[in-house]
Design brief:
- There is one protein chain.
- With about 350 residues, the protein is of the alpha+beta class.
- The protein contains nine helices and 20 strands.
- The strands form four sheets. It has an eight-stranded mixed β-sheet with strand order 1-3-4-7-10-11-14-15, with no helix packed on it. A seven-stranded mixed β-sheet has the order 2-5-6-8-9-12-13, with no helix packed on it.
- A hairpin with a 2-residue loop joins strand 8 and strand 9.
- The protein is globular, with a radius of gyration of 22 Å.
């Protein structure tokens, strides 16, 4: 039996809900509407569709779907509820249903989610803790910049394009131009691509992680080439220069980059590691007061930086209590009563 405690995860319902959203954006025929009503007769399907559609408050597709709801979905931001496994339905649909529903859903979210999107008008872009930012470069390349990060545009010349990741993490979608190699300098290494997409993250201790989401990149260091990476491959280079290369499946890549949709996905990480990752997105600080909980493995979808929802999830699903100490740090320990899940 697995020792990873999971939140309820009705994957198929979310995949199908995402597909219905995509189909509705093109308009539904009378036959499709009848099929949708039959599919929605299942309470689980209905809930997945409603939770997903409420996140799309600016879409015309809501008018197409309005007839299937008892009342039209609200056109204002949804109030923050107590934690439920259904709360991250949008992120789960994006993570698990992009292939099934097509990339139209993800592209539309990228254009509507509340991130700062701007044409590059300066040579430096920064984000605060908990902020993500989209930037369009003059050459047509796109940057998605994660929390507490800084990217410098060194040059966009006629012979090459040079950027520097000073701190944090960024995803680069590179406009193809074989005559102008695209290079990102980070932690003493260079990630070079022609037309591709990849994520670069600076690690504690001077390390570096690169994940290729499309195409092919070459890693260079002061001593020459480090290695080539293809789509779905990653490389982690430690501060001492040692490296590890591996491959991620599509779901793992999507989970790792869920921050671009404002979510964090954990799948068997220890509580200590999960809290460390979560802390990148909030000014809140956590300490685990019971050493027995350090290695507790958890899984689920979390809104990045939403400490209130995280604490409620830990209490409701893992019987882990939390309280704020006199110094403001959130203390994590077992709830009173029966022992916390292990």
């Amino acid at each position: 039996m697995s020792n990873v405690t999971e939140f309820p995860d009705p994957v198929r319902a979310r995949e199908q809900a995402a597909d219905w959203i995509s189909r509705a954006s093109r308009g539904l025929s009378a036959e499709e509407r009848a099929e949708l009503n039959r599919w929605r007769a299942s309470p689980g399907n209905a809930r997945a569709l409603e939770q997903l559609s409420t996140m799309w408050s600016q879409m015309d597709v809501l008018r197409e779907l309005a007839h299937v709801f008892p009342e039209p979905p609200r056109q204002q931001p949804v109030a923050r509820p107590r934690w439920q496994a259904w709360r991250p339905a949008l992120a789960a649909a994006l993570v698990l249903a992009t292939v099934a529903a097509g990339f139209a859903l993800q592209r539309h979210l990228a254009s509507t989610r509340p991130l700062v999107a701007a044409r590059a008008a300066s040579s430096e872009f920064t984000t605060a803790v908990g902020e993500q930012r989209n930037v369009s470069l003059p050459d047509g390349s796109m940057l998605a910049i994660n929390t507490a990060s800084q990217v410098q545009v060194v040059s966009l010349g006629t012979d090459s394009r040079e950027l520097r990741l000073v701190r944090g993490e960024a995803h680069f979608t590179v406009a193809h131009d074989a005559s102008r190699p695209f290079r990102v300098n980070a932690a003493g290494h260079v990630v070079q691509a022609l037309g591709t997409a990849f994520d670069v993250r600076l690690l504690p201790g001077g390390g570096l992680e690169v994940i290729v989401t499309d195409g092919h990149v070459k890693l260079l260091s002061g001593n020459g080439a480090v290695g080539d990476l293809l789509k779905s491959q990653y490389m982690r280079i430690a501060g001492d220069g040692s490296s590890k290369v591996g491959r991620l499946d599509d779901e793992a890549v999507a989970s790792r980059l869920a921050w671009r949709n404002g979510m964090l996905v954990f799948d068997g990480e220890t509580l200590a590691d999960a809290l460390a990752e979560f802390s990148r997105y909030t000014s809140e600080r956590f300490v685990i007061t019971d050493p027995r909980l350090q290695g507790l493995r958890i899984g689920g979808y979390f809104a990045a930086g939403d400490a209130t929802a995280l604490r409620e999830a830990l209490r409701a699903n893992f019987r882990i209590d939390s309280r704020r100490g006199a110094d403001g740090v959130i203390q994590i320990g077992p709830a009173p009563g029966p022992a916390a899940a292990r």
